[in-house]
């Protein structure tokens, strides 16, 4: 039975607990995966050193694929509904009607619940698990966000942003810090089991989430915050990125989709694809890299309604 895009029942997955003293397993690549990565590295190096102008041209083509207002009005009609407008952090970063995350109103205790959240299911290929891409939660949508986590049994949240940037601009609401005791969001309560900082400056929290009146056991969620991720760029090294990959590689795909967000919910997702419940979700793109990489990238950017990079440096 196809359960893509449908909330999982609590009994659909076995309980999973994150231990604060556990050491992430080393990600072991298959021979094919190693070959794909080496081919990709060669292509990227060739472009960077032999044809840097071509990289800029490809980035400009990606910029040109941004959706026009008329198309957005048709394909993002639910997000643009007057009832939901205030739930969008940015007016031009909206989920498509056909792959947006829909909250089940039958499981939502709020009379005013509309079932809308600015979040989308992203599926890399038919053979690989999907993940959820969403914006940094707003105070207005904190409860919606946790409702989504509970309904879809999401085991991991990857946060690629600070709460406030260096210019004192709010990039994301504080929806997760409950270090001083239980924190309540409407009918939902979160509790911090443990918190630690990794050697790569990642902040790891194990949270228990549940409806206050529920008799079901709480959902255990690993929250991974990467506060040093540049707001309009990419990290200078891959140490923290590889650490996230290690932390998530041991999570069984059957538990539910991994949630990834920055502030807007768009620019970082090109780099987050390896975390879509599998270590190498980008492999289908790399298999025929030399002949089809650029075409596939352009197609996926347009279909997913977000840019993979906000600058030529990021691309």
UniProtKB/TrEMBL annotation:
<dbReference type="InterPro" id="IPR029021">
    <property type="entry name" value="Prot-tyrosine_phosphatase-like"/>
</dbReference>
<feature type="domain" description="Tyrosine-protein phosphatase">
    <location>
        <begin position="55"/>
        <end position="270"/>
    </location>
</feature>
<dbReference type="InterPro" id="IPR003595">
    <property type="entry name" value="Tyr_Pase_cat"/>
</dbReference>
<protein>
    <submittedName>
        <fullName>Protein-tyrosine-phosphatase PTP1 isoform X2</fullName>
    </submittedName>
</protein>
<dbReference type="InterPro" id="IPR000242">
    <property type="entry name" value="PTP_cat"/>
</dbReference>
<dbReference type="GO" id="GO:0004725">
    <property type="term" value="F:protein tyrosine phosphatase activity"/>
</dbReference>
<dbReference type="Pfam" id="PF00102">
    <property type="entry name" value="Y_phosphatase"/>
</dbReference>
<dbReference type="InterPro" id="IPR050348">
    <property type="entry name" value="Protein-Tyr_Phosphatase"/>
</dbReference>
């Amino acid at each position: 039975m196809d359960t893509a895009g449908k909330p999982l029942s609590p009994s659909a997955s076995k309980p999973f607990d994150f231990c604060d003293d556990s050491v992430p397993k080393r990600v072991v690549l298959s021979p094919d995966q190693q070959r794909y990565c080496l081919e990709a590295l060669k292509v990227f190096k060739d472009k960077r050193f032999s044809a840097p102008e071509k990289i800029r041209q490809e980035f400009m083509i990606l910029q040109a694929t941004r959706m026009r207002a008329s198309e957005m009005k048709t394909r993002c009609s639910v997000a643009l509904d007057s009832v939901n407008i205030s739930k969008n952090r940015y007016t031009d970063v909206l989920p498509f009607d056909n792959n947006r995350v829909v909250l089940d109103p039958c499981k939502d205790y709020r009379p005013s619940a509309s079932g809308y959240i600015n979040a989308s299911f992203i599926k890399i290929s038919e053979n690989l698990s999907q993940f959820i891409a969403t914006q940094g939660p707003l105070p207005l949508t904190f409860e919606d966000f946790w409702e989504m986590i509970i309904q879809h049994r999401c085991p991991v949240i990857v946060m690629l942003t600070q709460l406030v940037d260096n210019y004192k601009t709010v990039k994301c609401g504080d929806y997760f810090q409950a270090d001083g005791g239980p924190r309540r969001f409407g009918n939902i309560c979160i509790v911090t089991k443990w918190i630690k900082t990794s050697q790569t400056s990642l902040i790891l929290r194990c949270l228990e989430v549940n409806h206050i009146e529920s008799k079901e056991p709480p959902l255990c969620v690993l929250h991974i915050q990467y506060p040093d991720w540049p707001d309009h760029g990419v990290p200078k090294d891959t140490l923290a990125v590889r650490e996230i990959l290690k932390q998530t590689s041991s999570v069984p795909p059957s538990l539910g989709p991994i949630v990834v967000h920055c502030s807007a919910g768009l620019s970082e997702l090109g780099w987050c694809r390896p975390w879509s419940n599998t270590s190498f979700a980008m492999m289908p793109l790399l298999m025929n890299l030399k002949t089809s990489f650029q075409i596939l990238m352009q197609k996926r950017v347009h279909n997913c309604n977000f840019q993979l990079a906000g600058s030529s440096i990021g691309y």
